[in-house]
Amino acid sequence: MRRALRLLVVLALVAPLQAQVTFDRILHGDREPQNWLSYSGTLMNQRFSPLTQITTANVKNLQQQWVWQAKSLEKFEATPLVVDGIMYTVQAPNDVVALDAVTGRVFWTFAYAPAPEGRPCCGKVNRGVAILDDTLYMGTIDAHLIAIDAKSGKALWNTTVAKASDRYSITSSPTIVKDKVIIGIGGGDGPIRGHISAFDAKTGKEVWRFYTIPGPGEPGNETWSGDSWKTGGVGVWNAGAYDPETNLVFFGTGNPAPDWDGRNRLGDNLYSDSVVALDADTGRLKWHYQFTPHDELDYDSTQVPLLADIQWPVGTASSRSGQEMRARKVMLWANRNGVMYVLDRATGEFLKGKPFVKTNWLDGFDAKGRPHQVKFPSPEGTLVHPHVHGGINWAPPAFSPRTGWFYVASWENSGIVAVTGQFPRTASANTQQTAMGQTNLVPFYNDSTEPFGVVRAYDPKTLEQVWEFKMSDITWGGTLATAGDVVFSGGREGYFLALDAKTGALLWKASVGGQVNAGAMSYAVNGKQYVAIAAGNALFAYALP
Amino acid sequence: MEQAHLTRWLAVALLATGLGIFAPRTAAAAQHETAADLLDGERAFKNTCANCHGPDGDVIPGIDLGRGRFRRPMTEEDLVRIIRTGIPNTPMPASQMTVEQAQKIVAYLRNRAAGVRSSVVAGDPLRGKTAFERTTTSGGCTSCHRVGSSGSRVGPDLTDVGSRRSAVEIERALLDPAAEVAPANRSYRVVLKNGTTVTGRLLGHDTFSVQLLDSREQLRSFAKSDLRELGFVATPMPSYRATMTPQEIADVVSYLSSLRGQ
Questions:
Q1: Cα distance from A146 to chain B (closest Cα, Å)?
Q2: Complex ipTM, two decimals?
């Protein structure tokens, strides 16, 4: 199988011809490992590259091939796409750039000036484009969705998804399903009503819309007291996943608003801090699971859903029969609230949940997976773990079908003092650790009792940690796993790291001079495997000599 | 030229080139203009407007009356009003003209936007569209040019050519395409050391590499060290002076002049 795959790669790379990227190609992205056709590689969001040229044995020889400097001082959060030797990425806030993936030289730039009222809470950032056929799709910070010709860089259509003046924005990479472009809307720290919308890829016309807060008469509206549903936030600001077997598209949803004060939005506040499973053709809700009911700690659940097929004990949680296992189609989720979950992705059934960082806001789950919450904000302040920035924030995790493990870069040992109705105070002596946004390296003063970044591998069957690699400073970076059994990650210290997927041992590092705020990706051109990472204000590509 | 023929020519040219410039136009105005009206309009323009706007109407930055370009969108009614009442707090003064006189100036300007062309026949934009999209032995226009979402990206995109180029310029591009080629549209050819030749539109180059959109619409990058030969080449666009009739040229010009973007 591996030889066949290698042959496929070689054949595909002799003369890369830029053919149309059909949905079938996107759906089976693993069949063309030289390309990276959606945000996390495939619509399962495993961020796993089947390329095998770079291995645990030779990764120490990686050399920088090129650097592309963005004309932007914003955080560089985009994961590039690569299609048949052409790389597409976004220069924050919303310029799309086509690069030669071998040299980093620019073919064209699509420049877009967002309306001045497009001011997202946490930086004028973008996490990347999507592609279908010959067209790229980008959401903008002024809440537009723009289609761009991938050959010429010319805009084809520009649809207003929501009003930027009403504090809506888009920062995530769109999700392509069949002939539709599906995108969520951000701005949920303000008084918006979040939604996920599907647009006709050819025309930009909206096909369906799912409101993340149910309206009057819809199930779930009763979980919002008074009129709080009208302005309850619940943005959606990361890419979704798609399962062709059930035709379900999955998105994580954001916090309810106002973030820190739940006194006027009593109830569970559905579907905040949840995963929603929607029929991809109609947008109808098939199931949901709420990670953090009635959140007052800003625990957005906007991490990308990661779909995996793993072995799982037969029977329900309460009646498992010994060690008998069978294949199960699951969803893995390391959540901002510090808890890691395994859900059945066809039904939403809660299979397992376990804290993956220091967590004290819950002490367990009921039979249906509802958390038993024990720490709440108080007038005098309550020490809560994890920090408002979470055990993980939005950064994309990885899963290797070879090891069967789930790779997550996270913050350990972080906490806040939650005061009723107020922005929480930091629990650390060093407030520097809470700073968001800077892309230059900063002096680092933490001692060993303060928060740190860590890359860990977990066995999804038990959610037990298999190994960890600790960093001094925290991380906003994602993880990439490869078939060469290498896991790539990085952090705020400005190192891009290669770890052994089986042991966590450090195999190689590069000083990239700015913090890693994105997930890495891998591609190949003319038989040569590359690994690309955005750090600071630049995009770096590495390969073997 | 017979009066009826001229009137028809004007009507078609206005329809073809005026869209988006002077729109919305009143149907009545379009139907009742005569060559005499246009001559009156021209005389009034040269006596009054040209003092500040210049003989071609393009002296004031941001305004090109001969091509229907203004600092903000204008309807014909807007123009008639401005000619009569001026623009407060600007050098544009009010005039003593009647509505009818001002309308003649607007008609003249609209006619200038259509251009004074060598072709003396009326162009039909619908026939022009058919001719433009026809496949010929040389491949036809769309084998290089794109309008909206159809055609090739190798040559200049013509989706909004009518708002960038006058009818005169479009006609010249059809008859004498090498006369003026925008820098970004120049053709480039590289010859690899193995003899392979690739031509296309130059997207960029540096000391070590070249980026092209090749004739198969592929984004291509080459190391200069792999090339035997490289450089600009003559435009692949042929002259249609001998292969199209004046009527067909007029039709295509009318069609292209009507393209104002999407």
A1: 14
A2: 0.78
